[in-house]
Amino acid sequence: MVRDFLGSVPAKCENCGCASPKITPEGATRLYRHALSGKQRETNAALGVDLEAELEALARRGSGADGAELAGKEVEEDDEETAGAATKKRKSKGGSDADDGVDSDADDADDADD
Prior knowledge:
Elements: H1 2-8, E1 23-26, E2 30-33, H2 38-46, H3 51-61, H4 65-70, H5 79-87, H6 105-113
Antiparallel strand pairs: 1-2
Region (Disordered): 62-114
């Protein structure tokens, strides 16, 4: 659903012609905004648009105090989320890294002497 939405976002604003950055999802919860190319930055500068300032202004006008507080800042995880993530362990698919019956290259020289 997120990919469908991001795929429908136009590369340029229909109103002013400003180039918009590409946004790609990674996983279920992360979105990354890619930097504009040189040509896109030049186009925006010619139109008199400072994209960073515009995005910060939108965040301030956004959904209340959280938007203004976090505008242009990196977000840190909450302590509750961090504590829960630290206790979870990933299950291995193929077993452990212990001896699985396959000789390593260092053992091959010893096997040839026997």
